[in-house]
Amino acid sequence: MDKTVADLATVVAGIEDGMTVMIGGFGGAGAPIELIHALIDRFRTTGHPKDLTIVNNNAGNGHVGLAALIEHGMVKKLVCSFPRSADPVVFTERYLAGRIELELVPQGTLAERIRAGGAGIPAFYTPTGYGTLLAEGKPIAEFDGRAYVQERWLKADVALVKAETADTHGNLTFRAASRNFNPLMCMASRHAVVQARRVVPAGAIDPEVVVTPGIFVQAVVEVADPQQEEDLNRANAVYPGEA
Amino acid sequence: MDKTVADLATVVAGIEDGMTVMIGGFGGAGAPIELIHALIDRFRTTGHPKDLTIVNNNAGNGHVGLAALIEHGMVKKLVCSFPRSADPVVFTERYLAGRIELELVPQGTLAERIRAGGAGIPAFYTPTGYGTLLAEGKPIAEFDGRAYVQERWLKADVALVKAETADTHGNLTFRAASRNFNPLMCMASRHAVVQARRVVPAGAIDPEVVVTPGIFVQAVVEVADPQQEEDLNRANAVYPGEA
Amino acid sequence: MTVKLSNDQIAWRAAQDITDGAYVNLGIGFPEKVAQYQPPGRQAIFHTENGILDFGESPAKGEEDWDLINAGKRAVTLKPGASFFHHADSFAMVRGGHLDVAILGAYEVAENGDLANWSTGPKGVPAVGGAMDLVHGAKRIAVITDHVTKDGRPKLVERCSLPLTGVGCVTRVYTSLAVVDIEGGRFVLKEKLPALSLEDLQAATGATLVVAGPVADLIVPEL
Amino acid sequence: MTVKLSNDQIAWRAAQDITDGAYVNLGIGFPEKVAQYQPPGRQAIFHTENGILDFGESPAKGEEDWDLINAGKRAVTLKPGASFFHHADSFAMVRGGHLDVAILGAYEVAENGDLANWSTGPKGVPAVGGAMDLVHGAKRIAVITDHVTKDGRPKLVERCSLPLTGVGCVTRVYTSLAVVDIEGGRFVLKEKLPALSLEDLQAATGATLVVAGPVADLIVPEL
């Protein structure tokens, strides 16, 4: 078994109009910039995919990565917890103009809904959001005298994920705080696509330190020297450069 | 901060009558034999603790560890998925005589209920057990046309856990399949007590390979050469030896 | 009716349907035999409930590491690409639909897909383990079993009489006499031993066997 | 009323109540200052939503590792004993009651413990982050805030007028003028600036301040 895919264009080729795509990362840490840009390249060449529903903690920053995906008009709806940042102008303009939908979810609920999707738990109860606008219309139940909100699982067609090391079976490790949503999104998507700094043979990652077992991963592509969103934004980068 | 406790007697001293105690391990892998035996020693000296509710995947094997705890009459109720084994005579006799209660839980539901207890999720829905005896009396709900069973979180006063390496902050790693329920039980108990083969200074475990972060652990005791339940049972050991 | 497949032969037949790279959970005991009969060139990845993916055969006697066991508490070894994880992650794999197939034993299988394989009734100590999770988790639930009980009663039945493990979960049954799919609440015969007449097979079965297409010969492998 | 604590002085006061070895989450922005004022001999362990336990100060400029950031996207460093984990485990720590205290900013705090700190109304882009999880997770929820808004309106009120972050969650408020506990649906005054009269403090507060015991002097530290 070898889940390695040779190039970025191939690995994003199956992403179609209207799909739900989870994108890992929190700020610049763990954001799969090369995968996102490959998806933009596909759109610029073919006009697809569009009308995507994107699940990410944020709404992008500057004019690269998720912000560039939105800027290209590929995103119909965003599911996220914190659509503000140093430079969220791309999302903000579209949102205020009514050109993009937003489902705002508390961060821990977002993480748990994604995990639930991966773990086959269709719904769960959480204290988070009880009595607030974000719980409006959701079922409420009392357990041991305390009120909780029912939340539903979140699943996706595809996840775009950034890892540090992957083996050919799809076992993954991450780097520092770039772990964040990435392991959960692998679990919750039918097709988890991973860019890894290093792809190694099966057996080269100690079984004790695997963070995401290969069963949750469908495709791996090596991106040996990945770009860091934070660096790109500090350099005021725009994707694609020659706009 | 130093969560290290010098000896086994001290670390189990706070366990009182009627408490719910989670005990890690699956078969012999990850069973905290020395902690269990220290608890038996305490009972033999003081008559306490008794009337314990024990949460474990199994019901003990032979006459050591959990089986010995039951054999000493310290256990009122067992919550487990598989109370059978090569030699479950201790539990079986008491169960058939009506001297111990059993709450039988499907293994994945047991794991998820413990995780839910640790994660502040009071209830969740699972397909497991729907339409079976083990779902009788539990709320049923339909999501996307499929029926699910509502299950409640499981929490404990104390967890007895076996780890491979612990640092003084309580960060843990495990060995092979002895991980099993141990990390979950640390999360779900008010007081997680860990025996570790090695206790190292804070900073000696790579932050990337920590399995259980120290926030879930309250006390650590070094047991440098722990006994393996499987070996004890193959040698027909009985605890305490000089009965 | 003296000719029937041995347990090893049933396991061999079930193994032929497992594709290369499939993620597979084998029930404790008889189903574990399936691992031995993977066709050449195919390598399934075996999952065990207690937190290992990609484990291999038993080690030599005396070489056992009792921290490295499967759900049947049998010592195992690791293949390259193995990983360890805790029980909640392990059952996330199960319940979340990440396993391609689970192959389980059965006391009874009903034509509506119901499975009974955990309890023979109210006597004794009940034990369920991971069976109830597996039957609602893997993408495909197959059963391997003798076609009849030791005292000759059918195990393929209209409705299970024993406590259920899962409702409407089984899609294929590999028996000592036949391969039967469950489609639309009916047993549909796919393969049978060539020497066995349809009438004799039906007589050994507790519910109607539907013939809705070609019935292939069930291969009797030399093992 | 010109004398009041600076933000750093409020943060200093809040830091005095954090015990050695406590697990603490500090809200983004002003609350992050609390970490700088831990009393000598005490070492809290700081949690950040994006998956680090026991992080330390910012690195020197130019030394930033942008994979090593906190929830405010600020570069941080690690202390010995740090660990990394994914977002679901991180919020298991939060929601599961494993944090000893969370210290958050506020737009409004009500005498019933309600907190509003995420939305100033329907205009603009709403953003919530981890605030709603934190207020129902940590064992103790404290707020640090100026006593009044920039245009002089009280932030301690009978009922919040802005969208709630959490219901009945706050138990202590550290302001620029006072320390106030929330007990039984009432603001109970614990400390106030010595130069400030109770009348003047009450006038700057949007709900009744109850005096139910000794009111200590709020220390004005030299920082």
TrEMBL record, chains A, B:
Molecular function terms, GO-annotated: 3-oxoadipate CoA-transferase activity
Keywords: Transferase
Signal sequence residues: none
EC number: 2.8.3.6
Family from the record: Belongs to the 3-oxoacid CoA-transferase subunit A family.
NCBIfam families per UniProt: pcaI_scoA_fam (TIGR02429)
Protein name (record): 3-oxoadipate CoA-transferase alpha subunit
TrEMBL record, chains C, D:
Entries under SMART domains matching the protein: CoA_trans
EC number: 2.8.3.6
Gene Ontology terms for molecular function: 3-oxoadipate CoA-transferase activity
Keywords of this entry: Transferase
Domain of life from the UniProt record: Bacteria
Nucleotide-binding recorded as keyword: no
Top enzyme category: transferase
Family that this chain belongs to: Belongs to the 3-oxoacid CoA-transferase subunit B family.
Name the UniProt record assigns to this protein: 3-oxoadipate CoA-transferase beta subunit
Naturally occurring in which organism (per UniProt): Prosthecomicrobium pneumaticum
